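Input:
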Amino acid sequence: MITLSDIEKVYQTKTIETVALQRVNLTVPKGEFVSIMGPSGCGKSTLLNIMGLLDVPTSGVVTIDGQSITSYKDKELAHIRNEKIGFVFQSYHLVNDLSVLDNVELPLLYRSGVSGSERTKLAKAALDKVGLSARTKHFPNQLSGGQRQRVAIARALIGNPAIILADEPTGNLDSVMGEEVINILLNLNRQDGATIVMVTHDENMAHKTERLVRFFDGQQVSDSKVFDLQTV
Amino acid sequence: MLKNYFKIAWKVLLRRKFFTFISLFGISVTLMVLMVVTALVNYMFGAHAPEKNMDRMLYVTRLHMTGDGTQMNSAPSYYFLNRFIKPLKSPEKISIYSNSNYTSINFTSGRKLEMKTRYTDSEFWRIMNFNFLEGGAYGDAAVEGAQLVAVINEATSLNNFGTVKAVGKMLELDNRSYKVVGVVENVSAIRPSTYSDVWIPYTTSKDDLGNANYSGSFCAVLLAKDADDLDDIKKEFYSTAAKIPLMPGENFTELKVFADTHLEGFVREITSSVENEVNVALLYTLVFGAMFFFMLIPTLNLVNINISRIMERASEIGVRKAFGASSNTLVFQFLFENIFLTIIGGAIGILLATGALQLINNSGFIPYAQLELNLYVLLFSVLICLFFGVLSGVYPAFKMSKLHPASVLKGGAK
Amino acid sequence: MIKHLFKLVWNRRRANFLMILAIFFSFIVLFGTISVLVNSWRNYNKPMGFEAERIWYVNIQSFQTPKDEARTITEQLVRRLQTLPEIESVALASGNAAYSGWSSVSGLQYKNLERGVNSVTVQGGDFQKTMDLNLTEGRWFQDGDAQSNQNPVLITQDVKEFFFGEEPATGKKLSTGQSELTVIGVVDHYRTNGELNSDDGTFFRATSLNDTTQVIASTLYLRMKPGVTSGFEEKLLKEAGAVATGWKFDVKYMDQMRSNYLKEYLTPIVAFAIICAFLILNVALGIFGVLWYNINKRYSEIGLRRALGATANQIYKQFLGEILVLATLGLVLGSFFAIQFVLLDVMGLQPEVYYYALGISILVIYLLVIVCAFQPSRQAAAIHPAIALHEE
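Output:
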């Protein structure tokens, strides 16, 4: 479970002050699949960065699994990212110099106490889940966009995170591949109970999820599940 | 078009100042070292005064005798050269003179002066082209009559007599008074067959020159009418040498003596070869091999940096390709840039080399050295520059031509 | 993690190949230069056995003076010089002293051991006192030794250790060619090559000026009283000339010979070392530039790793680690070639010298790459993940 309370993010340069997020309150319970929609520049990415602990809010509190992470230092944040959060990006961000298997293993490399053989076993299991167990030795540039994104999803779930954050995971893909990817995410949510927050531009994709939050100008404007809607 | 190339090249170099600095540093220092070495080699082996006719000269400096498990390498004696070499027919002129310098001293006004002294015959002055500042050489009569006359160099003149004219003055050498008849320009110590402070007739030596010992401390130089005659002279020399009787009173069973050009003599010295013909090609191979190896590291470095520079501009190249620039145009532009950079580096290298040579000349480490960048050295440097520029540009350019515009434009590398 | 680093380097092998090659060649050049430096330094640190200061080294040329006459004159000369108040001690010996450029080597044998050793012939005066040699065993030559058919000799400590180990050498017999030598004493050190050259030890033998089968030694070693300056040379030459009319005496001050020797020997080494330093600096700058570029290129990878839970410190260590792996590959290749050098003994130095040089070169290369990688790696660690991962 992840909770954002009264989150504000202000970018400050010498001359101007830009408000990216304004009093955002959002709770994603365990096992939920949430879509976030909104036009470009509405603060979706900032929100995702803050949820992913890649950025700190100007004010407000982020709580993951009941743990408030407000005053954490870089090292502790890195540790929590590693343990609790999985990322999927629009442009996959695979390391081109590493094989598919090595790419998937990457998060476990930054976790202490996981042996090499265990890493390989887990990575193979994760690749199996996304249907790529035959491609472990390939390199990213030998794969199609959809396959790359599936590798990225395998990488996101290998560490068994509390929440998977997907930033326009289908944005670079054609509709067939996009479908493929969204189905994998849906399966993960339904069968394994994975908690997923997905930023998307695509209404069709968004409507497949159980909850939809819309953003405009740094503010939350609607939430299709009424039980925790907090109007502005 | 060319102007456009210059403009782009200049802008590119300015844009990445750090990379440009690294490249320039590597190129200029490498070229500086190569130029200093070239200048030194040119100074050592080139035909300069007094050995202006070096391409027509053969030197006889080594005597090799073996027998009964022992061997002896030494310079030949005056007796030996005078008896067996002097009668050769094919050389135009033959001179016999001491192969190394004796140190003569005098005490002028309580100060000890050391002077390198060489014994020569009168033919020496006809074969070598010394630049006389005052007076002239001593002639046949002076040598035959064992007259106490001396030719001195500028530095000795200055040390003994100050700025006044030295000709006609008496010069004290090991308690004997020599009359100065000529003053010549200083000859550098890295010209081992002519260098000295003082030259005097060999007949004034206290050594017993009639002694029938073959080994001694003299050498001979044979001057050919023109460079093509050298082979004929060598032929006569070696057939004469084969007939020289073994040294009486010693147990040697074999005797060899050699006539070499200046360069061959150098090779013989470092390889201790006792063959009649030495392998000069080996020396060239070694020298060029060493130079190549020396340039290899900076070149590799430059290639590394060039690849980085190109990849950094991958998107620019992609755009150019997308708008229709052919790979050839881009490769040419890059090579042009690289040669441009190398030439700037070369220019800096020339400045540095000039400084380094000044430093060597002024340090006095090589007595009377006057190293300079002459036309040969400069031409050679330009050649190295181009070689360097092309060599370090080709591989990166090849990589560049392989860049796919589509994949580059799509990004991936930020 | 190390396996991961090797994987990264290996998968980027084509891009890394040139860098490894540059490191390899730098290492080879460094190894050669450092071998020479180490060798010189080791030699320099061994004691010479004497002090060059206050020693005058005088070569005698007697020209055409008949041999018998020359013997008498030389003897008178030594005696005359001994009486001069400025001179503390005089010796007549062979000219192969340190810095003189002369050398004379004889093969010595004991049982099945054999070694080429510098041979110094002492013919008159007091060589031990003049050169201030230190005896560790036995005695120096006495009157009569030169005529003795036992052929008494003294050897230096290193020669003694080579032939006899810990046992006392006095009384032992060595042989050279046909003749047998009897060791009467051991001198701690006396080197006849300069301090930067290696030396296989020295042995001293005595000959008599009266023995017509022996050549006349042509070098005088004079130990001056403290405070005697070069101004004394003119007087010395007059005194010597009065005894030996028409002879030539070439006076050199040993400390000056020493500084000339050092200058001559060190200049090429220093020139070579400077060139080597330039080459290495060149490569270092290159590595720095390439790393810098690489880190810019791998911006998003760094962001990703940070997102996946790598701390800044881990990123820093990764980049440092990668360059160390690269350096290691270059060094493994380089060491392979360097060891061939050692096995073939290309430079003719002692094996320890190569091992020291190998160690130092490896250390220098590692230090170099660490210094070069330090700034770029820190820069990599400071990259902000949110910005690095920013899409568009």
